[in-house]
Amino acid sequence: MGSYRVCVCFTRKFRVTEAEPPSDVKEAFKKYTENGNQMNSEQLLKFLIEVQGETLLTVGDADAIIRQILQKRHPITKLTRQTLALEDFHHFLFNTELNPPINYKVHHDMNAPLSHYFIFTGHNSYLTGNQLTSDCSDVPIMKALKKGVRVIELDIWPNSDKDDIHVLHGRTVTTPVELIRCLKSIKEHAFVASPYPVVITLEDHLTPDLQAKVAQMLTETFGEMLFVPESDSLKECPTPEELKHRIIISTKPPKEYLEASASTTASKERRNSSQRSNCSEDDVWGTEPSSLTADQDENEKSDSDNFEDEDDSNHRPQLASAYKRLIAIHAGKPKGGLKEALKVDPNKVRRLSLSEQALEKAAESHGTEIVRFTQRNILRVYPKGTRFNSSNYKPLIGWMHGAQMVAFNMQGYGRALWLMHGMFRSNGGCGYVKKPDFLLNVGPNNEVFDPKAKLPVKKTLKVKVYMGDGWHLDFKQTHFDLYSPPDFYTRVGIAGVPADELMKKTKAKEDKWTPVWDEEFTFPLTVPELALLRIEVHEYDMSEKDDFAGQTCIPVSELKPGIHAVPLCDRKGEKYSSARLLMRFEFV
User: Fold this and answer.
1) Is 169 a residue of the active site?
2) Less CB within 10 Å around the terminal CB: N or C of the chain?
3) Where in the cell is it found (predicted)?
């Protein structure tokens, strides 16, 4: 019983009651028990196979489910029966551990090249907050790895004495952290959440002598964990299975520092002599090809691979050969514009980095070339430089074009990051998601997927929102409303290719801690392989902004058919202890 004081002399009382099973649950129980009042293991198994799509389960599995439910619901009473009553059956369906909406085990083929996977990727992984003034630390790196992030980005700079290496966001007032501390934390936490490889992308601003010191740090810290390629550059990406428990380094191959620096100085002098406006200090590696810089600001340029490929410097002295030897995936762009940058070399794998704006611009005229490039090479997309508050962008444009590393600020909480969390709930949350076949296939006339093509509806998803529960256990009684229980409603929709995006919502249920909506929505999908089911619960507030009450995002390709318990998360993506929805998913 909950009490809400309306005024000094008047108190409203409400009882938190357990809602009865939805009619669909009652009908399923009636059907599979053949109008009986108890469900045995054979009947439960038949329901699990025919309705829930659990074709691999056995009678033994059904027996185990029944035992767990009875032990949880009747811990004191010694029951002789090993069957479920209707309320027990409903409790099973509403249990997020026993009846989740997706498979939490690795089930994708992990023996394809790395370029065939979307990879959970962080941006400026060392920052604790905004991009300009926050602290740099190994703590966000550890948090990211524990969540399954597989690509960690470190910006490495000389310290003030030029004798050691710091990690910091250059040309800002972020406080630095020592590189060695970050490397040790990566080693300790790299494989806590997933056994599959961790890629460290280095934004390198070092002199050759410090690059050699980095090579020593990497070798001594990671030892046998460090993947060292047999040749100067990879001819083909290894597989995640082959690289289990390995650390991979990806960065720009080292150049002759002084020559590059002199070239930069000369370039600046030429600009000054011509009195061009808005000139700024270039990175020591040179400038972006003009076709990629139209929408990029200075911060974005420092984050991209703005230098010529190492093959253009064959005659330069190799001052950091030990460092270069450790670079498994070479980053960089060849001379020339975008078309040249997207050329596929059959004898070499490389990584290309584009800002979100540069990708959007490139996609307008080079969409199929980007898809072809990502079939063999690695494309990294990163937030535009004006996202000083560490916000994120819509990740779908990257995935639509096959980009493996859609880099996100993991501290930039919001809907964009919820989508990222949703995508990487796929495949057991291991941080590697196999790309859909259409992004990897090549047709008889050498054609590849065109992201701009209009496609027919391939599949329709029906989503039914039955009810919700658990908020009274996760929130204080007056969290949502001082004077009465909450008025919850649910928003359900699709994030995906533009043709599939759609949001709908239920009606608000007044004064209910356990709301029952029983509403169904239909979503036609042209590219279900990339669709994410967005779910948000809010509390309606007549006078102010509606209160947040939970969210989750689920890959449509991973959804199990049937009736399932959907756990809800807070704004940061942490799962609530109890808040959940009972929903049904059906594909037609």
Assistant:
1) yes
2) N
3) Cell membrane
